[in-house]
Amino acid sequence: MGKRIIQQARGHGSLTYRTSKRAFRVKISYPDPQEHGVAKVIKLLNITGYSSPLAKILFKGKMYYNFANQNLQEGQEIFIGQGAEIKDGNISLLKDLPIGTSVFNVESYLGGNGVFVRSGGTSAKIIKKDNNTVTLFLPSKQEKNFTPNLRATVGIIAGAGRKEKPFLKAGPVYLKMKARGGRIYPRTSAVKMNIVDHPFGSGRGKRIKSKIAKRNAPPGANVGHLRPRRTGKAK
Q1: How far apart, in whole angstroms, are the C-alpha atoms of residue 155 and residue 136?
Q2: Which segments within the chain are labelled E, that is strand?
């Protein structure tokens, strides 16, 4: 009797394929959009679920967490809100920043707490401004327009260079993938499995079998072509 294929195991929702809650026990957020003033960096934290250090910020008696920028220090004061100085670590409105400024953790809507440019060592650059939009050059080499009233953090996210050191051995890669949680590693190709373990298994030919999964197929049955526009050999 065959075993469950990976899609079935993931759909079952066991701890093996689920990210640990501790990896995201801290939520990245900005203060209320109407508030502005001086805040203080209480502590720098290393959280598994994020690729850069986090800054624990005390602002008007409440604690907030944001990505730490390069050269940020514990005890440092930063300014939050409209009228903030153009200084690394400050949280400011896009309309108040000049062209050429590097920013990260950019909001998608006012009060959205930042969703763009959040990976360690990255930043976006302001390249164009007009009355209605501010254009940023993202790390993906794409340009994107934002509303001028959205908030962003000035500077470059800390944690650059984490991908530069080679792993050299398979063991450190395994530990890295294990820490991230919910990732399948090492991943085995379906055509290399036995026929009892996967629909694409067995050594009788290495061509993946033509199979169209149903549109609402459950985990384990959605194997093959998923909602293909066409099948068969192209003429």
Answers
A1: 14
A2: 37-45, 54-59, 62-67, 77-80, 91-93, 102-104, 124-129, 134-137, 143-146, 151-154, 212-213, 225-226
pLDDT along the chain (235 residues), means of 10: 75 74 87 92 91 94 95 94 88 94 95 92 95 94 94 95 90 82 77 82 68 78 77 74
Considering the four listed CATH numbers 3.40.50.150, 2.40.50.140, 2.30.30.30, 2.40.50.100, the one that applies to the domain covering 21-154 is: 2.30.30.30
* 6-17+182-226 classified as CATH 4.10.950.10: yes
Single-letter amino acid, residue 62 = K
pTM: 0.75
Taking the alpha carbons at both ends of the chain, their separation in whole angstroms is: 41
